[in-house]
Amino acid sequence: MQSTMPSIGNSSVMAIVTYLDKSGISIDQISRHSGIELRSLESEDARLALKDYVALWHSAIELSKNPALGLEIGKWFDASKVGLVGQVLFHSKTLEDGIKEYVRLYCLVNDAITLTYYIEGSNAVLRFNYINPDYYCIPDIERTLVLSLFRSRYVTEKPIRWSAVRFQHAPPAYSAQYRSTFNCPVYFNEPHCEIVFDREYLNLNSRVRNPYIGSAALRYANDLLKKIFRRSIVDKVNSLIHENIGTGEIDSDFIAARLNMSRQTLYRKLKNEGVSFQQLLEEARYSQARILLSESDTSLTEIALALGFSDVSAFSRAFKRWSGVSPKNFRNHSEELTRIQHSM
């Protein structure tokens, strides 16, 4: 049994539509090209299935003839069109208060992603974790990270400069635009998408804060969270597996402890949703293996150990069982496809 397809909040969808409309591409043109009835999403609480959201991005890029559209829409920041979660962030007392609420409420924006916020030495790190690597959408994560930068600069008392930005995907042909946009080191082919910045920024106050608006927005966000979004146990387990894959800690005891339940309770809840822990673990390993084999030159031994296998032979047997081909043949085929695409 597959878990419910993630969905995207209305504000992200309408950001694409509004930007294209200002560029001379109407909502009806976008609807016809994408096959999505966008006028049905005008309600503030409306949501769009992730697969349709990805299709919308593809249509937007084709219609605009701009492969860097995600970066461009991220830079196009209009404070008057900020969504509900953005309002909570804007009207929090400090940047740290806003980030904590942003992490907690991000599922209202995009429930294919969970956020992790932590301190690492003199830096603060905001990490974007995909609950399934197959949900990764390059233009969306481009827009998200650029928008985060421009919003933080708008909210705080002084301009914020990030220390580093990390993306999971390979550098695109327009990667120079990343560096000019973020004005900091940008890294590709990373394990996670992350924003890294000086932790001293966390104490900055919001210059636009209105505590009454903030309180009202937070109440509405909490009510909406209870009303429309209850993540299944499958989604929660998937998220934890993908966050911790490669750490050597992914077993049922570890996941059960993170969810504050016994291993037996975890097994029972998963069984009630028609899936087993081992099935979810293997799906995650297979997804991550495909990425590492096709998008990196990591050795088979390193991949095997990163995914929790005892040796490369065990990994090779499992991969052939999943895909019907050996890891080596899969990598060779991926490299051949890449060469063909680059020669076109």
From TrEMBL:
This protein's GO CC annotations: cytosol
Keyword terms of this UniProt record: DNA-binding, Transcription, Transcription regulation
Name this polypeptide is given: AraC family transcriptional regulator
Residues covered by the HTH araC/xylS-type domain: 235-333
Keyword Transcription: yes
SMART domains in the record: HTH_ARAC
Superkingdom of the organism of origin: Bacteria
UniProt-listed Pfam families: Arabinose_bd (PF12625), HTH_18 (PF12833)
InterPro entries recorded: AraC-type_N, Homeodomain-like_sf, HTH_AraC, Tscrpt_reg_AraC-type_HTH
